[in-house]
Amino acid sequence: KSNTTMICCCRAAAICAVLVAFSAVVGRVNGSNPVVLNTSIADPHIHIIGDVAYMYAGRDKSPQARGFEMPDWNVWSSHDLVTWHHETTIFPNQTYMGQSLACWAVDVAYTPRGGKPSAFYFYFSDGHLSTGVMRATTPTLSDAVDVLGRPLLTPLLVDGNYTYDPTVLMDDDAAGSVYIAFGRHDGTPSLYWIAKLATNMTALAEAPRPITFLGAMPGDDKPTLHKRDGVYYLSGGTEYSTATNVYGPYTYRGSTGPARDDKNYGLTGQAHGRYFPWHGQWFHVWCEFVDQNNTLLGRGRGGGDGKGTVASGSGAETSTGEHAYHAYRDSWMTYTHYRHNGEMVDDVSFLDQDVGRLGVGQYSGQWQRIETEWYMAVAGAAATVELPATQPVANASLARFGVTLNAPGAAAVFPNMRHLSPKGGSLTLCYASCSGSGAAIELVYQASVLARHACSPASSGPSNATVAWSWPGAPSSMANLSLVVGNSPPSAAQEGVTVLDWFRFH
After folding, report:
1. What is the DSSP string of 258-291?
2. What's the whole-number mean pLDDT along residues 201-219?
3. pTM of the full structure
4. 213-214 and 250-255 strand pairing
5. N or C: which end of the chain has fewer CB within 10 A?
């Protein structure tokens, strides 16, 4: 039951480049879903800074809490999204808040943008009352100081409306603009607000303005902004809208969560978290109510719980009909995929493996199949692609995905592969298409090829192939295992596209 690393790619430099990020973590896996076991992590926001993931979050005080009692904020770090290290605890008495149990949602930004950051800005909620800002010299926020000694955002700035749950977007425009959005959204008109931050990051460069929508978007608070391919995504839980201008108007696109209520892993309008990219993959981290997940009961896909009851800031208990849930949350993570039309889909099928307990970046040779879009990193011309549907997709959550590898050096990495037989066995590969010339799939251990299959150019549609594999020596000597997809020979020019759907060990 060794932990190993798999890679899909063309050989040589591409393999080495993507292995660097994961070679240090093999053999010390302790991650799972929830992201950190036996610990409350609420309203998580993850940012990648210096190729390290930093998670900034609040904490619920007690599993028996009847309302939101949040005594502090915490910073966690990870090099692989698997192993997490606690870095810092920030207490409200380090800010203008003083003693408080209202350490609500936060977000982080940093400067300078082009080079090594030297200043980090921590935007924090004082319950539903206001938003403040601290400044630090390290992403761990170990030396964070309340810069203003007073709120940055108050209801007076927005006609008496809410100024909590900040989300910060560091735009990729020529000006390097940074925006802060916040507030509570109750349909139309919008009560989400947005403003550009000044260059010092501790003041506003403009008066906040309401974010505009074309129509209505379900949800309440917890706005989160991110940008992909020139499109702004504004989400509230799993509900989201898109626009080509950061101020709007935004068009509602749907929910990233599953179209089911029986077991949705908390992926609802209450799933406060963040979508973020790393190493060519997109991830979604969010918090869910522990009672809800333990009972295997779902909550509605809207901003409330589907029964008209929402956990309120005044301490009302979260409930779904006759089932009561305490205000105690942990955080989960899965992969997020983008359809050809830009719609987002949270990968619930990954969570269904072992009830999601293994967590991203970990795989089991005992699974019925390993979907190729579950990779942890890509190199070269490898990417997630939506697979053709045999009939119209009625709901985005039903879309299917694979990995396209359409040039030499294309690679997809699957670290921490568990439960492989010490005697070897067989490997089934499912191609969505294979129109390349000379393309081949190889199972590689260090420099040894354990198995290989030549992809036939005639395989333009879905097809399966099964090949035998075995260890080159004692399996106890394993360090890294790689699944290699590329050309045969590697120097040959590749024509067409190879799209791999899934693979399975026997």
Report:
1. -S-SSS-TT-STT--EEEEEETTEEEEEEEEEHH
2. 93
3. 0.90
4. parallel
5. N
Q: Give yes or no for a cis peptide into 155 (omega within 30° of 0).
A: no
Q: How far apart are CA 112 and CA 430, in angstroms?
A: 45
Sorted by sequence, the CB contacts under 8 Å of residue 394 that are 6+ apart come out as none
In the DSSP assignment, the letter for residue 296 is T
Instruction: Please say whether the dihedral angle defined by the alpha carbons of residues 417, 418, 423 and 426, taken in this order, is positive or negative.
Output: negative
Handedness of CA 62, 63, 65, 68 (dihedral sign): positive
33-47, 60-74, 135-149, 358-372: which range is least confident on average? 358-372
Q: Which amino acid is at 475?
A: P
> Which residues, in sequence order, are bridge partners of residue 85?
77
Taking the C-alpha atoms of residue 47 and residue 139, their distance in angstroms, rounded to an integer, is: 10
d(CA 226, CA 233): 5
Rounded Cα distance, 465 and 454, in Å: 9
81: how many CB neighbours lie within 10 A of its CB? 24
What average pLDDT does range 162-175 have in this prediction? 95
Q: What is the distance between the alpha carbons of residues 356 and 354, in angstroms, rounded to a whole number?
A: 5
Torsion sign (Cα): 122, 123, 126, 128? negative
The total of other beta-carbon atoms located within 10 Å of residue 438's CB is 16
Average pLDDT over all residues of the chain: 83
Beta-carbon contacts of 175 under 8 Å, excluding residues fewer than 6 positions away, are: none
Mean of the pLDDT values across residues 158-181? Answer: 95
Find all residues with CB under 8 Å of 210, minimum gap 6, and list them. Answer: 189, 190, 191, 192, 193
Burial 3-25 (b: 16+ CB within 10 A, else e): bbbbbbbbbeebbebbbebbeeb
Which of 220-224, 269-273, 475-479 has the lowest average pLDDT?
475-479
Torsion angles phi and psi, residue 22, rounded to 5: -120, -10
Distance CA 411, CA 409 (A): 6
Strand partners of residue 413: 7, 377
User: Range with the lowest mean pLDDT among 186-195, 227-236, 240-249, 300-309?
Assistant: 300-309
Angstrom distance (rounded) from CA 268 to CA 304: 8
**pLDDT higher than threshold 90 for residue 421:** no
22 in Cβ contact with 377 (< 8 Å):
yes
The pLDDT tens digits for 302-355 are: 333 332 233 333 333 444 443 467 899 999 999 999 999 999 999 999 999 876
The backbone torsions φ and ψ at residue 270, rounded to the nearest 5 degrees and listed phi first, read -95, 0
Res 29: pLDDT? 38
